[in-house]
Design goal:
Layout: H1 2-10, E1 15-16, H2 28-32, H3 36-43, E2 46-47, H4 54-60, E3 64-65, E4 71-72, E5 76-78, E6 83-86, E7 90-92, E8 95-98, E9 100-101, E10 109-115, E11 122-127, E12 143-146, E13 158-165, E14 167-172, E15 183-188, E16 192-197, E17 200-203, E18 207-212, E19 216-220, E20 223-225, E21 232-234, E22 240-244, E23 247-249, H5 256-259, H6 264-282, E24 303-304
Length: 305
């Protein structure tokens, strides 16, 4: 038992308690379940120790209704929600979390993606500039949490609750679809609940965070910084958000490639792009989003609704 407890600790699956964590230790579960630590270890996959990618770990990690932590010992906290735990470092990957079957009146199934060690954190990066080598990255969020397939909201019978914590999420892709594509984190669809805690979101190419189509968000102790477009966009009837103790700063100045050209060729390309925007605006001609690979400056800097 001590061996499995040590495994849980060194992989960050059991988080160190702070002075504000929960109630007093409850040892009843441990007394009645001698293999608790082993079961807990296997229920919470660690990347890259147990799986090489976050996507693989998400397929394995159980999604169960969330609730209060069933067990705390004197030094560690164990969550009853399945968690994908990221070791310190840079994880280059795009994450998509879809809804799970849902029954009216029942709590949503839940999953957590977090850094193994809060004091160190972990970086999740979906960051490719436009090139022929990466044609498929256009208008791709770094993290998508959605119950929607198509546009028919009435037929959706899934739901999901996701918590993201202690992560630095870095995003940059070509494309100008900042409503549903070119954004660091997209939260979309009925019965989607996302909690973002102690994270940093940055998109050099688009928005930082988009919440749409009746999704719900709670964000605490987090920052959205240096985004090309709006830092946080909350849109559509029924979408909800509660934001506390957060910073949303230095957003809305356009795609990074427009702001920081490094060669004469890049400067000339930027001038052509901006001149096209100006000419079209003067002539009253809209520019289709699918024809544009960069987001121009001029967006609202922080919160839109």
């Amino acid at each position: 038992m001590d061996l499995w407890k040590a495994f849980c600790s060194i992989t960050g699956k059991a988080m160190e308690k702070s002075s504000t964590d929960g109630a007093a230790a409850n040892r009843l579960l441990l007394d009645n379940k001698s293999n608790f630590y082993r079961e807990f270890y296997y229920r919470n996959p660690c990347v890259p120790i147990d799986f090489q990618s976050i996507t693989e770990a998400l397929k394995y990690c159980p999604k169960i209704p969330s609730g209060p932590s069933p067990f705390e010992d004197e030094t560690l906290v164990y969550s009853n929600t399945g968690s994908v735990v990221l070791m310190p470092g840079v994880h280059r990957e795009r994450i998509q979390i879809c809804g799970e079957p849902w029954v009216d009146g029942q709590p949503l199934k839940s999953i957590v993606v977090r850094a193994a060690f809060p004091s160190i954190g972990a970086a999740l990066v979906h960051y490719e500039r436009q090139s022929s080598q990466y044609p498929s990255t256009k208008n791709q969020p770094a993290i998508t949490v959605s119950t929607r397939i198509g546009d028919d909201l009435d037929q959706i019978e899934t739901g999901i609750s996701v918590k993201l914590s202690y992560l630095k999420i870095l995003h940059s892709t070509p494309g100008a679809d900042i409503w549903a594509g070119n954004t660091a984190v997209l939260v979309d669809g009925p019965r989607v609940q996302v909690l973002i805690d102690s994270c940093i979101l940055q998109s050099d190419s688009g928005r930082g965070l988009v919440v749409t189509n009746q999704a719900e968000l709670q964000m605490t102790s987090s920052s959205i910084v240096d985004c090309a477009a709006t830092g946080f966009y909350l849109g559509d009837w029924g979408s909800k958000a509660r934001v506390s103790s957060c910073n949303i700063v230095r957003c809305g100045f356009g795609d990074l490639s427009l702001r920081r050209p490094t060669s004469d060729e890049e400067r000339a390309a930027v001038d052509r792009i901006l001149n096209n925007f100006v000419a079209s605006a003067r002539n009253g001609q809209p520019i289709p989003r699918n024809h544009v690979d960069v987001v121009p400056p001029g967006h609202s800097g922080e919160l839109s609704k």
